[in-house]
Design brief:
With about 325 residues, this protein is of the alpha/beta class. The protein has eleven helices and eleven strands.
């Protein structure tokens, strides 16, 4: 009888781990379940809870999942630092907290994020494959921390900016809380300079909300804390009264992003530890010129976000 092998999503048929597994184990009969095909988007807790049974084998490039599986008494394979197939625990991998519990009763065919809006698709078109991979990794890390997307209860998003000689330095930090169990997570942060020379008040908030969508958190209740007064004022005005057709493209783009978040509350941020931390980080980046700071073409980003709006207008004109 063929032994069942659970092949993690990070192990494709063209990866070194898969080829090494095939080379070492030869012609033995294996019944391979590729999670990317059978259960896309599945979090680690569901793999551990519902797929790794006595007698099954795990093939993964994730050191933490490999360690968890070994703890559970499962035969797990990964690559060591020399690129050799191994079943041994890997140095440097520490499990600082107990595993979270599954929130699903049954195994699902598809755990991927489902959304009715097209914004995330528009935002993805600007990204390289490496950038898309980084976002996939970040999403998986967040969901694994809480057990699943359904266990995430709230996102707190702090937005800041600073006028520098190189332009408007924008920054954001995500803090995510769960329904129960694991402590909150400082999940993501990002810093950018616009490619344009101006200092539009929409830039910092668009920059932050872009990552909210790319991390697939726009369906989670979001507390948005905005430090720049002009950016908070603009966001408040847009939420209070939609941007008109004659508004500039950046304001209309920000309006789309703000209104498509399922449950968003806007707050000014003028003091406190998150304010101090953001200001300190922006000062540090301004002095150091760190490679943490990326460049963002907000004009092109606005074009992509408003493309659907233009298409709808053209369709309405044609129909009339």
């Amino acid at each position: 009888m063929a032994k069942r092998v659970i092949v993690d999503e990070n192990v494709g048929r063209n990866t070194a781990l898969w080829h090494e597994f095939q080379r070492v184990l030869g012609e033995q009969p294996w019944d391979c379940v590729f999670l990317s095909e059978e259960h896309p988007g599945i979090p680690d807790v569901e793999i551990l809870d519902k797929l790794l049974k006595p007698g099954t084998v795990l093939l993964t490039g994730d050191g933490v999942l490999h360690e968890r599986a070994i703890q559970q008494g499962i035969r797990s394979y990964t690559l060591d630092k020399q690129g050799q197939l191994t079943r041994q625990r890997q140095p440097g991998v520490t499990l600082s907290k107990p595993p979270v519990q599954s929130v699903h009763t049954d195994l699902q065919d598809d755990y991927r994020h489902k959304t009715d809006n097209e914004i995330t698709g528009r935002l993805k078109t600007e990204l390289t494959e490496n950038q898309l991979k980084r976002y996939r990794t970040a999403r998986r890390r967040i969901r694994s921390h809480f057990g699943s997307a359904q266990a995430i209860s709230e996102v707190s998003l702090t937005v800041g900016s600073k006028t520098t000689r190189r332009g408007l330095l924008c920054g954001f930090v995500f803090q995510i809380a769960g329904n129960s169990g694991p402590k909150g997570l400082r999940a993501s942060e990002g810093y950018c300079l616009p490619t344009a020379a101006d200092a539009n008040a929409a830039y910092p908030v668009i920059h932050a909300l872009r990552d909210l969508y790319l991390l697939q958190l726009e369906q989670v209740r979001t507390e948005l804390f905005v430090i720049p007064a002009e950016s908070h004022e603009l966001s408040h005005r847009l939420l209070d009264s939609e941007a008109g057709e004659n508004s500039e493209s950046l304001a209309r783009s920000l309006n789309r992003l703000l209104r498509a978040v399922s449950c968003l509350t806007l707050h000014p941020c003028a003091k406190g530890r998150f304010f101090d931390s953001m200001q300190s980080k922006l000062d540090q980046l301004d002095r150091s010129g760190s490679n943490e700071v990326t460049g963002v073409d907000f004009g092109q980003l606005a074009v992509r976000l408003l493309m659907a709006e233009s298409e709808r207008k053209e369709t309405n004109l044609t129909d009339s």
